[in-house]
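for the writeup, i need someone to sanity check this before i put it in the appendix. the sequnce is what the collaborator sent (i think, or maybe the updated version? ugh). structure was predicted straight from it, no edits. if anything looks off just tell me and ill rerun, i have time this weekend
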Amino acid sequence: MERTQRFTVEDGDDERLDVLVARRLDMSRTLSATLIANGAVTVNGAAEKASFRAEAGSAISVTSPEPAAHPVLAEDIEINVVYEDDHMMVVDKAAGMVVHPAPGHWSGTLVNALKGRGQALADSGDEDRAGLVHRLDKDTSGLIVVAKSEVAHRVLSKAMAERRVSRRYAVLSWGHIDAPALTVDKAIGRDPNDRKKMAVLVNGRPAKTDFVKLARFDSVELLRAHLHTGRTHQIRVHLASVGHPVVGDDTYGGGGARRIVALPPKRHFLHAAWLVLKHPVSGELLDFRSVLPMDLRTSLVAVSGMPELETVVDPLDFLGFYAVEG
């Protein structure tokens, strides 16, 4: 069995055909090059070489073997649902949970847990991503929106694309940023040397993050990050690109000194704490806030030297995370 995938070349996709296909379809460059060599990739209906650079607006068609089917199982996994109605729900995801099934993680994901609740989920065109409107990294905790109805999925996806959903993250970064606020506006794409990573690339997809400094400590700072776009690993890549990687981020250079910051293994200090959006059907403004998880609270106490953070209801609120809309 074969499948054909199609996409349109976007502005800024000025890269070799093998690199472009690998990035857009999330496959290895080796597989991409093999498909091109075998004539399975066409640009506006014509086969091209791996080194060919397609113009914006060009139609790319890729025919490849159908991947082996992996049924998405319904699993009895406890999740923290903070809001739910007939059209949507908001889940406060724990760190360590993968959002959807993928190679190496065919079970134990958020989608498996959602199916295990026996409820309807919007058809996103891919059973592995049923109901999902956006994603969080495995080791990032916090709020994620799930669509239960088709209308909710359509409206919420459009709102995400048009940047009408406000997503703000609490992040601890290494070092000190000079200014009280910082905007990083750098395109991000798949790292050509390691397809499991992302990188700042001239020919990547546009990405913009605003950072506001909330507190400065000896070796780290607490920031509020506001996403304007939703690229994979965006906050982590942007902070690493300015020399202030996320504390605990082994992938992008911030994973050292875990004892100093009191973080457990394979955990970075990044939490999707604040989500504001309009209900996809009623239009009601919804405001969701997630209290800092205990592992990150412990880390914040350790780096700040502020024992009072152990007992306040929400350390983020105490430190002014929600005080300013910027």
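The domain at 166-318 is CATH 3.30.2350.10 (Pseudouridine synthase). The CA atoms of residues 56 and 89 lie 37 Å apart.
thx in advance!!
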